[in-house]
Amino acid sequence: MSPERPMLVAGNWKMNTSLDEALVLAAGVGNLTVSGIETAICPPFPWLVPVARAGREHGWQIVVGAQDCSAHGNGAYTGETSAAMLQPWCGMALAGHSERRRYHHESDALIGEKVRSIAGAGMIPVLCIGETQEERDADQTETVLERQLGGAFRAAQGADLNKLVVAYEPVWAIGTGQAATVQDAAAATAFIRGWLRQHATSLVGTTRILYGGSVTPDNAAGLFAQPDVDGALVGGASLKAADFNRIREAAAALATREIS
Ligand code: PEP
Question: How far is the CA of 76 from the centre of ligand 1 (A)?
Fold first, then answer.
C-alpha cells in the first residue's frame, strides 16, 4: 500500500435502516477495528448525527460520511444540506452517485461544485463516475469517464482536492449482483489514473480510486488486488456488518501491496 493512499472501504447505506437498525449496524462495523485501512459508513441523513455521536462515545475508528452534499453554502435551497452543516459530523461526502445523476438529473458541473463544497469544508469528496449498460455496449466507457471527470474537475477548479476519492461505479453493476470482472475494473481504474496523471498531475499519487458495483466478501479480494483499485464503495453488502467487515478484512490483507 502506498502511504499516500491507504485502502478505503466505504459503505453506502442509501435510503435504508431505521434509527435502531442504523445504530446496531454502525456498532457492528465500529466495534471491529481493522488496522491498515480506512473505513467509512454513509448512513441516511437523519442518522448522521446519532451515528457520529455513538462513534465518538465508543471511539470507533470509522469515518462517517454523507450520501450527498449541497453545492451551495446557505440560503433558499429547500431540502438541501450544506457542507458546513455536515462537517461537524462527517469526514466525507459522496458527490454524483449514479442514483443522484439518474433520479435527480445532476450534471457533471453541479457534481463538480459539490466536490468543491465538500473539499472546501475539509471533508473527503468521493466523486462517483461510471458508464451505463448502453454506453458500455456502445464502447463508450472511456469517453463517458473522461466527460464526467473533465466536467467535474472544471467546475471544482481552484478547490484543494488533496483528499479526493474517485469511485468508479459502472451503473450496470450497481445493485445487480453482476460486478465488473477484475479485468474490466482494472482497465477502468487504470484509465482514471491515467486521466489524473495527464490532467491533474499533482493529485495522481494521492487520489484513491475505488471500485463500486455489487462488491461482496467473495469478489472483494480479486478486485482489491488490481493495482489502481484502492478500495471499494459498497452498497448492498454494507447493510450486513458481517459481510462489510469481511470486505474490510480483504482490503486489510492487501494493505501491504506494492503500488507504483
Ligand atoms: C452503490 O450504490 O454505490 C453500490 C455500489 O451498490 P451495490 O454494492 O449494492 O452494487
Answer: 31
* Cell representation of residue 103: 433520479
pLDDT in tens, 163-204: 999 999 999 999 999 999 999 999 999 999 999 999 999 999
Distances in whole angstroms, Cα of residue 161 to Cα of each of 37, 41, 121, 249: 20, 21, 11, 28
For residue 58, what pLDDT band results from cuts at 50, 70 and 90? very high
CATH of 4-258, one of 3.20.20.70, 3.30.70.1270, 3.30.930.10, 3.30.230.10: 3.20.20.70
Q: Under a CB-based contact definition with an 8 Å cutoff, are residues 90 and 66 in contact?
A: yes
Query: How far does the centroid of ligand 1 lie from the alpha carbon of residue 50, in Å?
Result: 23
Residue nearest to atom 2 of ligand 1 (CA): 235
Q: Indicate if 169 belongs to the active site.
A: yes
